[in-house]
Design goal:
Elements: H1 3-13, E1 24-32, H2 41-53, E2 57-63, E3 75-80, E4 93-95, E5 102-106, H3 107-110, H4 116-133, H5 150-158, H6 165-176
Parallel strand pairs: 1-2, 1-3, 3-5
Antiparallel strand pairs: 4-5
Helix pairs in contact: 2-4, 4-6
Bound molecules: zinc ion.
Length: 213
């Protein structure tokens, strides 16, 4: 047995829990207008892909302007810098779950942290999960915690934060329903997730980074 095949076996072992479920593929467009030099996007994308691959979801990364496909809604991640200090203080990014496709990442806040590419991967995974689940729910542990502590940031540098079983069930429930924008153009007949106490279209999601140094 070659070392390559052994590695493959290890990877497959991680997918056993969802071996009977379909392999979902998601197109993810990363829009970067910042020319950031502190974050390694390739590293962040690879890690985010690994974190989703464990649960049977494949991310297909693309750059540039998203091309609309009638059969699916791509996920669009926009990196922004020069974030005003008073805008969602402590937050590293947010997803507009009602709309279903768009994520904003406050890159300037991430690039100041240790292992910024690693943190970026976790922020993207967290926000993509919100879009897949279609809700703003958080878990007590793992990548879907509402607020990562210094211990979480330290832990994610050793190995990726994991999904809880409920996180995974909700991701698959959302994927089975097919991802589509949940907010009609005329603003009528919103689905329940849009009525969760937030103004439609407003950021529903925030991450308080906590101490990182
Ligand atoms: Zn969140």
């Amino acid at each position: 047995m070659t070392s390559t095949s052994m590695v493959l076996m290890v990877c497959l072992a991680g997918t056993v829990a969802h071996a009977g479920q379909a392999q979902y593929k998601l197109a993810v467009y990363l829009l970067d207008r910042t020319n950031d030099r502190y974050v390694n996007y390739a590293l962040a994308e690879t890690l985010a892909s690994r974190m989703f691959a464990v649960i049977g979801v494949s991310l297909e990364w693309a750059k540039g302007k998203a091309v609309a496909k009638p059969s699916q809604s791509p996920i669009i991640i926009e990196m922004v810098t020069r974030t005003p200090p008073k805008l969602m203080p402590g937050s590293l990014g947010y997803a507009v779950t009602c709309e279903g496709s768009h994520i904003t990442v406050f890159l300037d806040r991430i690039e100041e942290m240790r292992a910024p590419s690693n943190v970026l991967a976790h922020v993207m995974v967290h926000e993509i999960t919100h879009l897949l689940q279609g809700i703003g729910r958080h878990s007590a542990t793992g990548v879907m915690k509402e607020m990562w502590t210094a211990g979480d940031f330290g832990g994610m540098r050793l190995r990726p934060l994991s999904f809880t079983s409920v996180d995974i069930d909700l991701i698959y429930a959302g994927l089975r329903q097919s991802r589509r924008p949940k907010l009609p153009a005329n603003g009528e007949n919103e689905d329940p997730p849009c009525l969760r106490g937030v103004t439609a279209g407003a950021p529903e999601e925030a991450h308080l980074a906590g101490p990182v140094r």
